[in-house]
């Protein structure tokens, strides 16, 4: 199946006593970012990276490099990760479903890489699993040795197939709860919330990530050109922060702006109860603000 | 790998702006860290820059980023230069649009970051943007320069903070149709209830334990055991890889193999 594509992995998908032959295909690749060369500032020449012994300072060729982990300051145990990988290479080639969890409990922070999972043999079992999971509104948690590591994989129905997402290890994920736990608990209500909801209402829409275009490379080329020509590089405008004392005014102005700026608001009706009187009152201020330089504005680029 | 550096900038919704900082939500800092060693001496191996023309080592601090203008001709760019790129998206996350939560296909999610106010001045403005998104069950759409690329990002309110996801580019995501088109779109209706029964039997609640790493766990155990056994004067693990170092390796490999075998057999998500 999935003719014309190369599978990353072939094996079995096992749930209960049922198993079917499956293949995994990369669903997304990672593109490269703009890379720079490393240059010696003094000579302007490129630099190469070499590896040396930290004590003898002699070159260490690749074949003499090995890995180890530190037991304590400066004491190492030599161990080759390739050997570690080899211990699990002899795997049983099986994506073993351990549990089904409610779809609502899927935590996307753990997501690593997505793969398309397709049947190779036993297509009936595959389709039954897909439709059963969809009906029960669950995702499957499976474990498998994939690409030389024991991994947890989340499997969910999508279209006629399944999407298998490898998960980051628990220790790699700082739970958002922990990261955010020290922040002050603030609950926004009343007019502020109503105004913010109104602003959101005017900016509601659809978004297709596939249509997005990266402007960085072009902007960088411009910058390099300016530098070559000896022009002063533009200074970024300083940004004015909305202090608590002016926050309500900024929200009112924004809500007013939205209304004056968009003559064809499609979905504003949903939030029309945000107080039209107030907006009308705010409009004058907003128009004034729009022409004032104090307002942080997006620069056309 | 050390934690990647903080990003500091601004979160902006229309005329409301607040200072924010961002850190990756995932990190390898707790991973057992392997160092590169010289097999012959047992010492650490470190990297060094060598001038490609003179062949001499380059002093720390003398290496710079070069933008290739021609063959062997580079324009040196400092971090300040790079900061001056004429894109507001280098410093400001301007939320341009809101879409229903869940409307972005998960294959586009690339990397999660934790976004929070950078100082107390911004707390309230941040909370307004967060709570309004929560109340309307939407996520924000914006763009931001991350790792020398301008990326589409989504902002998802979460607890007290906001998770910012960078999204993959259109040409990075492969269309699912070409993989799924040959698969039966309907399952045997008699089989589905059986599968649902099995699902019920094996149903569980999500727990981070399900994403544990048995190899890492065994390595950590072995390291702590080793630490306890090691006397301060004992230097045999270092220096030439003698018999005792060898036997350590054997011992470790054996233990790892056993733990993996147990993992594969147990069939438990632990």
Write a concise synopsis of the structure shown.
The complex is a heterodimer of chains A (301) and B (270). Chain A has 301 residues and is an alpha+beta fold.
Molecular structure report:
- With 301 residues, chain A is an alpha+beta fold.
- Chain A folds into 2 domains: 1-176, Ku70, Chain: A, Domain 2 (Beta Barrel), CATH 2.40.290; 190-204 and 213-291, no CATH class.
- Helices cover 29% and strands 28% of the residues of chain A.
- Chain A is built from 7 helices and 11 strands.
- Chain A has helices at residues 81-89, 123-136, 176-180, 190-202, 216-228, 244-261, 276-291, and strands at residues 9-15, 18-26, 37-40, 47-53, 65-72, 75-78, 94-102, 111-121, 138-146, 149-158, 161-167.
- Chain A has a 7-stranded mixed beta barrel with strand order 1-2-8-11-10-9-7.
- In chain A, a hairpin with a 2-residue loop joins strand 1 (9-15) and strand 2.
- In chain A, helix 4 packs parallel to helix 6 (244-261) and helix 6 packs across helix 7 (276-291).
- Chain A is extended and about 65 Å long.
- Mean pLDDT of chain A is 81; it is low at 263-301.
- In chain B, helix 5 runs antiparallel to helix 6.
- Chain B is extended.
- Chain B starts with 6 loop residues before the first strand and ends with a helix.
- In chain B, strands 7-1-2-9-12-11-10-8 form an 8-stranded mixed β-sheet.
- Chain B has helices at residues 79-83, 123-136, 177-180, 191-201, 214-229, 243-266; strands at 7-13, 16-24, 34-38, 45-51, 63-70, 73-77, 92-94, 97-100, 109-117, 138-146, 149-158, 161-167.
- The model of chain B is unreliable at 1-5 and 233-247 (pLDDT under 50).
- Chain B is of the alpha+beta class and 270 residues long.
- Among the domains of chain B are: 7-29 and 85-172, Ku70, Chain: A, Domain 2 (Beta Barrel), CATH 2.40.290; 207-266, no CATH class.
- Strand 5 (65-72) of chain A pairs antiparallel with strand 3 (34-38) of chain B.
């Amino acid at each position: 199946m999935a003719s014309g594509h190369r599978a990353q992995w072939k094996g079995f998908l096992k749930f209960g006593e049922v198993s079917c032959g499956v293949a995994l295909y990369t669903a997304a690749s990672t593109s490269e970012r703009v890379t720079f060369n490393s240059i010696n500032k003094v000579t302007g020449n490129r630099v190469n990276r070499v590896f040396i012994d930290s004590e003898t300072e002699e070159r260490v060729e690749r074949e003499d490099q090995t890995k180890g982990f530190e037991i304590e300051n400066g004491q190492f145990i030599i161990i080759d990760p390739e050997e570690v990988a080899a211990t699990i290479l002899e795997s049983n080639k099986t994506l073993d479903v351990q549990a089904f969890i409610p779809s609502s409990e899927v935590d996307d922070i753990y997501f690593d890489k997505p793969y398309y999972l397709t049947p190779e043999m036993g297509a009936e079992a595959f389709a039954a699993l897909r439709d059963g999971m969809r009906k029960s509104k669950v995702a499957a948690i499976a474990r498998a040795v994939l690409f030389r590591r024991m991994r947890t994989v989340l499997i969910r129905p999508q279209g006629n197939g399944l999407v298998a997402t490898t998960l980051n290890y628990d220790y790699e994920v700082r739970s958002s709860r922990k990261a955010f736990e020290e922040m002050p608990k603030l609950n926004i209500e009343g007019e502020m919330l109503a105004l913010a909801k109104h602003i959101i209402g005017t900016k509601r829409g659809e978004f297709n990530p596939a249509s997005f275009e990266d402007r960085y490379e072009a902007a960088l080329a411009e910058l390099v050109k300016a530098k070559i020509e000896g022009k002063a590089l533009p200074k970024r405008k300083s940004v004015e922060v909305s202090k608590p004392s002016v926050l309500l005014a900024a929200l009112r102005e924004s809500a007013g702006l939205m209304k004056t700026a968009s003559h064809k608001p499609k979905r504003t009706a949903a939030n029309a109860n945000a107080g039209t009187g107030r907006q009308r009152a705010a409009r004058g201020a907003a128009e004034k603000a729009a022409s004032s330089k104090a307002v942080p504005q997006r620069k056309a680029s | 790998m050390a934690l990647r550096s903080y990003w500091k900038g601004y979160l902006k919704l229309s005329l409301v702006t607040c200072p924010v900082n961002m850190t990756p939500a995932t990190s390898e800092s707790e991973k057992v860290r392997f160092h590169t060693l010289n097999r012959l001496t047992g010492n650490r191996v470190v990297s060094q820059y060598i001038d490609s023309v003179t062949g001499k080592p380059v002093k720390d601090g003398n290496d710079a980023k070069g933008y290739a203008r021609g063959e062997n001709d580079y324009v040196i760019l400092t971090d300040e230069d790079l900061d001056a790129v004429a894109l507001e998206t280098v410093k400001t996350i301007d939320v341009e649009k809101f879409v229903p939560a869940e409307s972005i296909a998960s294959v586009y999610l690339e990397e999660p970051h934790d976004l929070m106010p950078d100082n107390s001045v911004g707390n309230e403005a941040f909370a307004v943007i967060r709570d309004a998104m929560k109340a309307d069950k939407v996520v924000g759409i914006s763009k931001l320069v991350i790792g020398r690329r301008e990326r589409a990002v989504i902002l998802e309110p979460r607890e007290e903070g906001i998770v910012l996801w960078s999204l993959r580019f259109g040409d990075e995501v492969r269309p699912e149709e070409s993989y799924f088109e040959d698969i039966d779109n309907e399952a045997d209706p008699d089989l589905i209830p059986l599968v649902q029964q099995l699902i019920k039997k094996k149903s569980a609640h999500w727990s981070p334990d399900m994403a544990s790493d048995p190899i890492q766990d065994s390595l950590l155990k072995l390291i702590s055991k080793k630490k306890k056994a090691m006397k301060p004067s004992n230097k045999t693990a270092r220096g030439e890889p003698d018999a005792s170092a060898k036997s350590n390796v054997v011992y470790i490999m054996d233990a790892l193999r056993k733990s993996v075998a147990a993992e594969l057999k147990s069939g438990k998500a632990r």
